[in-house]
Write a structure and sequence with these properties.
This protein is of the alpha/beta class and 350 residues long. It has a single domain, classed as TIM Barrel (Alpha-Beta Barrel). The protein contains 16 helices and nine strands. Strands 1-4-5-6-7-8-9 form a seven-stranded parallel sheet. The longest helix is centred in the middle third of the chain and has 25 residues. It binds coproporphyrinogen III. Coproporphyrinogen III binds next to strand 3 and strand 4. The site of coproporphyrinogen III has 22 residues, from strand 3 and strand 4.
């Protein structure tokens, strides 16, 4: 274990070390911008079938590692397999995003299982075991889950919504039922992450994509506290578990988040003010981020400038290079290559 931590760059940063060349990986590094991904996605028939087909999902996990040599591989799956395993089936309409049978009132919660069905998730654990055996020795293997608040927004609305109104209204109108749902998701997520570690991941990221939409009190109740509970319960089971938190849009609330949530590193979205993040967030924990995904779509000088700004802000302290959100489908592959060369070259002074 100590050996692994000593050799893998990303794990070294999670342990608090600053590296001259920051490790780099990208959220959504597997996906539609890669022709080899589109090919296996077609073979699988649907996105969800791909998530639950271990041989193909392992292949999707490894594709960006082979092509780009990233420092981390992230399990190919989706945050919405958790509601699926709680008895709320998910489908993905081509080009339209996820669809679930919306939990529109407190009575609908009775449709959910009380515990996550690990039988449904068995193919995910098998994917992890397959990838683990094939990863290059320097590459860190990341698992992940959605944070309870972000999962709840999809479960209640039954789809992605711009401002998460259905979930926010539900939380105000039915606070007890909403707290029960969040509690169920805390337990399910803890269990799910513990199983991912047992199957072979080395660190996990908790995606709270919609954290930034909540008022301060609600952010405390529905984002900070549940994620703090997950991390604490996970560490009871796996004391060495490494966790990256990503409360997207949290802004200045990140200080409060980091005071309460015992994560090892924090993801920064592209909207955060770099001076604030460097002076008030990075002294508290290693940071990961935060290139604007649109700069990667545009490429050229705009990409170079944005890359240099990120390195200039964060590379002097413990830092993992990443985007501020996922790779967009129309991202040209040559731009990703240019980004990696610049991060690894510039840091060497080249
Ligand atoms: O990062 C990776 O490469 C690992 C795989 C991964 C996916 N989704 C694959 C995916 C991860 C970590 C996620 C997380 C996820 N999924 C989040 C949190 C991060 C974020 O983006 O905010 C959320 C909110 C979801 C839910 C989800 N999945 C939505 C809203 C959509 C539709 C939007 C879209 O881009 O199509 C998905 C689909 C999805 N998840 C795709 C991939 C590769 C595209 C599906 C396809 O191939 O047709």
């Amino acid at each position: 274990m100590t050996d692994t931590i000593a050799t893998k760059p990303l794990l070294r940063v999670l342990a608090g070390e600053r590296l001259a060349i920051p490790p780099i990986w990208l959220m959504r590094q597997a996906g539609r911008y890669l022709p080899e991904y589109r090919a296996i996605r077609e073979r699988a028939g649907s996105f969800l079938k791909l998530c639950f087909a271990p041989e193909l999902a392992a292949e999707a996990t490894l594709q960006p590692i082979r092509r780009f040599g990233f420092d981390a591989a992230i399990l190919f799956s989706d945050i919405l397999v958790v509601p699926h395993a709680l008895g709320q089936p998910v489908t993905f309409e081509s080009g339209e995003g996820p669809r679930l049978d919306a939990l529109s009132d407190p009575k609908a919660l009775a449709r959910l299982r009380r515990e996550i069905d690990h039988g449904v998730l068995a193919p995910v654990y098998e994917t992890i075991a397959r990838v683990r055996g094939e990863l290059p020795p320097d590459v860190t293997f990341l698992g992940f889950c959605g944070a309870p608040w972000t999962l709840a927004t999809y479960m209640i609305a039954g789809r992605g919504t711009a401002e998460q109104l259905p979930a926010r209204l539900f939380a105000y109108r039915h606070p007890q039922a909403f707290a029960d749902l969040i509690g169920l998701l805390v337990e399910a997520s803890t269990d799910y992450l513990a199983r991912q570690f047992a199957a072979g991941v080395e660190a996990v990221q908790i995606f709270d994509s919609w954290a930034g939409i909540l008022p301060a009190d609600e952010f405390q109740k529905w984002c900070i506290e549940p994620v703090a509970q997950i991390v604490a319960a996970l560490r009871k089971r796996i004391p060495s578990a490494k966790v990256i938190g990503f409360p997207r849009g949290a802004g200045t609330e990140l200080r409060r988040y980091l005071a309460a949530v015992p994560i090892d590193a924090v993801g920064l979205d592209w909207m955060i003010e770099p001076g604030f993040a460097r002076d008030c967030v990075q002294p508290l924990r290693p940071v990961q981020g935060n290139l604007d995904p649109l700069a990667l779509v545009v490429g050229g000088e705009a990409l170079d400038r944005a890359t240099d700004n990120v390195l200039g802000a964060f590379a002097a302290a413990p830092f993992i290079f990443n985007l501020g959100h996922g790779v967009l489908p129309d991202t040209p592959i040559v731009h990703v290559e240019r980004l990696i060369a610049r991060v690894r070259g510039a840091a060497r002074g080249g």
